[in-house]
Amino acid sequence: METYRLFTPSKVGAITLKNHIVMAPMTRCRAIDNKPNELMATYYQQRATAGLIITEGTSPSPNGLGYARIPGIFSEAQVLGWKMTTSAVHTVGGKIVVQLMHTGRISHILNMAAGTEIVAPSAIKATGEMWTDAKGLQDYPIPKAMTDKDIELTRAEYITAAKHAMKAGFDGVELHGANGYLLEEFLSPLSNVHTDKYGGSIENRCRFVLEVAGDVATAIGKEKVGIRLSPYGVAGDMRNYPEIDATYDYLSKELNKLDIAYIHLVDHAAMGAPIVPLEIKKLIRKNFKNTLIICGGYDKESAEADLQLGLCDLVGFGRPFINNPDLVSRLEHNQELSQNLKTELFYTADHHGYTDYPNFKVPVVLQIL
C-alpha cells in the first residue's frame, strides 16, 4: 500500500501534530456578542482530526471587530468562551491555534461597540461593502489614520491577546497578515502612505508587521507564533503593486530572523483570485527555514505532491472542512467527499450549515439469500 506523507505525524514549532493537514481559518460569524460559545466548541471538536486547526479570525481589539458576530480575545469573558473550544479540541487529541485578525479598514461601525473606531495605516477608503446585521450591506467607511499613539496601543493589544490565548488554552497564535486586514494594510504602498518610519520604503512598510510578530514572540515564545501572508492576494481591496516580490522577499527574510514557528501562505486562485506565482512561493520557501504551510485549492494528490517536492511542510484545507468534518479520514481512506456545501449558510448565526454536516457513512450492502 502506498504511504502518504500527508497522513504521517509532523511538528510545527512547539506543537506535535498527528498529520500534515491543517484546517485553515474560516470566518463563520457564530460568536454572538463577539463571545465564543458552545456551538463553536462543537464545530471545532468535530474537525479535530486535522493535524492543526487554525481558528477563524479573532480580534485582539474592540477596534478590530469589523464583521458581524466574529469573536474577540481581548476580554475575560472571551477568554472563558475560548476555553470551551480548546478543551473540546484537546479532549479528542487535537491541536489548535487562534488567528489574531484585526480587520483595520475592512470594517463598519455598525458591527462595533460604542466608543470604538475604525483605524488603518492611512485614511484611505477600501472599495467594497460590508454586511451589517442592523442595515444590511454598507459601503466601507474612510478609516482614521493611525497615529504613533494608536500604533503603540495596537501593538500592546496584540501582546495582551497573545497572552490571553495562552490563558485560554491555545497551542499557539497565528497573526493574520493577509486578506487586506490591518497588518497587510501596512505592507502595501496603496493603503499605507505614512511618511514616517512606518511608510515609504519596503523596510518601513514592513516595520509594524515585524514589530507585532516580535512582540508576540517575546510574550508567549517564538515557537508558538505563526503568520499568514497573501502576496498577490486581492481580498480587502489589496490591489497589486510593483514592489510585491521585493516586499515579501524582505519580509520573509526578517521573519526568519525572528525564528517564529511558521509562515502560512494563502493562494486564493482556486476561488477566482489571481494566481500566486510559483516563484514567490519558492522564494519564501528559500528565505524562511522553519515550517511553511501553503493553503488553497488542494486535493489529496496535489497536497502530497507539494509535500514530496518540499515546496511546503504542511498543507491547509479550507472549505472542504466545512461540509466534511471528517475530511482527514475521507482523504486517507479514499471515501467520497460531500459536495453538499451550503454557501448561503456560511455566515448565519445558528447550527444550520455549521455543526449539522454528517460524517461519512459506509454504504450497507444487502445480501439477497
Keywords for this structure?
single chain; 369 residues; alpha/beta; eight-stranded parallel beta barrel; two-stranded antiparallel sheet; 10 helices; 16% strand
If you had to describe this structure to a student in words, what would you say it looks like?
With 369 residues, the chain is α/β, with parallel strands linked by helices. Helices cover 31% and strands 16% of the residues. The chain contains ten helices and 14 strands. It has an eight-stranded parallel β-barrel with strand order 3-4-5-10-11-12-13-14, surrounded by five helices. Strands 1-2 form a two-stranded antiparallel sheet. A two-stranded parallel sheet has the order 6-9. α3 runs parallel beside α5. The longest helix has 20 residues. The chain is globular and about 80 Å long. It starts with 9 loop residues before the first strand and ends in a 37-residue tail after the last helix. The relative contact order is 0.14.
